[in-house]
Amino acid sequence: VDIYDGKLHLDGAEVPDGHANGVTEEETGAVIYPYKVRDGNVFVLGDNRAVSKDSRMFGEVNLRQIKGRVFLMINKEGITRF
């Protein structure tokens, strides 16, 4: 994972992110870029990037710590059910 030019990059390629509000900037915290996510963990980002408290600040999250799942997403394109 790398963040530069206000965008998220994964394995060297820019990740298109039509759901994020604002640019993706590095945050002061536990992460030094480029960041390698370990097996069994994920790098989480909030959708309102300017105010989100996410992996940019506290690092990766172990999959066992995730308690919920997305079942409905509403955005300007409409509703997506999972």
Short description:
With 82 residues, this protein is mainly beta.
Summary tags:
mainly beta; three-stranded antiparallel beta sheet; two-stranded antiparallel ribbon; 7 strands; 82 residues
- What percentage of residues falls in helices of 4 or more residues? under 10%
The low-confidence parts are none
Structural class: mainly beta
Shape, principal axes of CA atoms:
globular
| Strand percentage | 25-35%
Report the sheet with the most strands, covering strand number, pairing sense and barrel closure. 3 strands, antiparallel
What is the N-to-C order of secondary-structure elements (H for helix, E for strand)? EEEEHEEE
Q: Give the beta-strand count.
A: 7
Q: Radius of gyration over alpha carbons?
A: 13 Å
Number of helices: 1
Biggest sheet, spatial arrangement of strands: 1-2-3
Q: End-to-end span in angstroms?
A: 25 Å
The whole-number mean of residue pLDDT values reads 90
Q: What does this 3D model show about the protein?
A:
The protein is mostly beta strands and 82 residues long. It has 1 helix and 7 strands. It has one helix at residues 55-58; strands at 2-4, 7-10, 13-14, 41-42, 61-62, 72-75, 78-81. Strands 1-2-3 form a 3-stranded antiparallel beta sheet, with no helix packed on it. Strand 1 (2-4) and strand 2 form a beta hairpin. The chain is globular. The model has no long low-confidence stretch (mean pLDDT 90).
